[in-house]
Structures
1.
Amino acid sequence: MRNFDFAPLYRATVGFDQIADLMDRVLTNDTSAQNYPPYNIEKTAEDAWRISIAVAGFTEDDLSVEVRENSVLISGARPEEKEDKVFLHRGIAQRAFERRFHLADHVRVTGAVHENGMLHVDLAREVPEALKPRLIQITTNARGSVIENKAVN
């Protein structure tokens, strides 16, 4: 696998640490170990998404959705069952799992629903008012004097 040196990026920029960290995280992930449980990510609106995870056999009490820093951690663990059952074929995996999804800035978890063997986690981007674009009114002064500073909003 290729190794990239992000030192020049750190020396020449300020505040772009997240991009380098994201690239490092993507390049070091072992994708073969992260295939259970299967999941979908769908865009439900302009600034909203839904993560749907197949959790057949898990109850609400077995599942956990936790928000930590800029990520959402979804985990599931079933209590130990007695092994008195005899399976001829065991194709439904009910092993413990932990899935982490990294969130962009200002994206937060708005809710989670468990129905029909699926766990749906809803996300929404909520940009603070101070970071939204503002329109600044341009005025002219016919006398050529200094215009007083006034708050636009």
2.
Amino acid sequence: NIMGTFTLLEAARKNGVYFHHVSTDEVFGDLEIGAPTKFTESTAYAPSSPYSASKAGSDHLVRAWARSFGMPVTVSNCSNNYGPYQHIEKFIPRQITNILDGRTPKLYGTGEQVRDWIHVDDHNLAVLDILSHGEFGETYNIGADQKDINNREVIELICELMGRPGDYEHVADRPGHDQRYAMDATKLREELGWSPRYTNLRDGLEQTIAWYIDNRSWWSASKESVESTYASQGQ
């Protein structure tokens, strides 16, 4: 995240290229479960993990290059994605492919963590809107504005949709697991006219499950390796 962003920024600077930086809600840390607050573009950074700290660092680099060299840049911070082509180490595709592979789905810890799940197609369209008519130097939050739904409810919905209701097991929680993310995407909606198409998680999950069923050859070869890595971590 640090060296890669630096390298791309220098290439863009030397070639006079507009630079859009795709970042994450994780740079803001986490929110209290049940609280009405959401992350805005002016929320202070408070990353919780080495990964999110490196993402925060990359965001700072982009803004520094804009300030120091006058580069045309925009930044977007997005909530958790799901949908086709997502690597099977990620929470939702891992559970879908576990079921398809005859394995038991795994829930990290108690599963109380809340995420503002957004379908990847909606994220892509938001980035396209920013590229097309976003204002240089601005940051835009991207989120589907879903009602708070925790990971336990997500895995139960996946199991229900795939005909295995309640068939999952609890495993060790992830280190530094943030409790709640929620994005305020008002600026993106009002200034650029974007809105998500997948406003119901059930609909998005049905489409996602169908994709992994139809594209087993895309993920099956790496499934054993992914699960072996998780097993070594007690997950």
3.
Amino acid sequence: MNKKRTIFCILGMLAVILLGGCARFDAAMYVQAVLDTSYKGETERYIEMTGGSKEEAQEIFQKKMKATMKEFKTTQLSKELEKQYESLFGNIMKQMNYQVAEAQKEKRGSYIVKITVKPMLLFDETYDEFQQRAKAYAKEITDQVTKNGEMPEEELMQQEVYRIYYEVLKEGLEAGVSYGAPKDVLLHVIRQKDGTYEIANQDVITLDAMLISTSSLDKTERQ
């Protein structure tokens, strides 16, 4: 073996060693990348960790957005109002407050990662204002009908109530978001048969519920 070939062989061995070291799975960084992509639309770290495309990473954020919208609305919104809410929820999601701690390795290559969450209080703190404005709108309709005016169609009234809520949430977001006391949740990062990793679905559902406090809304639904 000549000197030049020997050098190339050594360089090749070093490359394998370095790539092997870089390929070591970092569960905490993986969770950070997934959460940042899902909630904040920050895709760079996710692409680096998974090797996926920017389009695939952006689709994760869009799916989270669509799921949020589907959970929120109970009626068909106008196209304009739909776009306004999508933009609003996109900005709300980017204000999610979570911190990722170090991962603990489990059996069979899986990990547990602790997340400290501070629940956003936007919906709780704006609910009374929304109720007041909605009641004012209802009184306006009642006064209109009392004076022999026509009762608006139910769909139009629903659209107006959603418009009112949009304005209240938007104003609250612009005024500054506050958060509740921190809470911890454990995410299980499970190694799949093909060697890839995935956060347990039930853990994601639990995390979703913790990120935003909706105690005011929940209390109203129970009444």
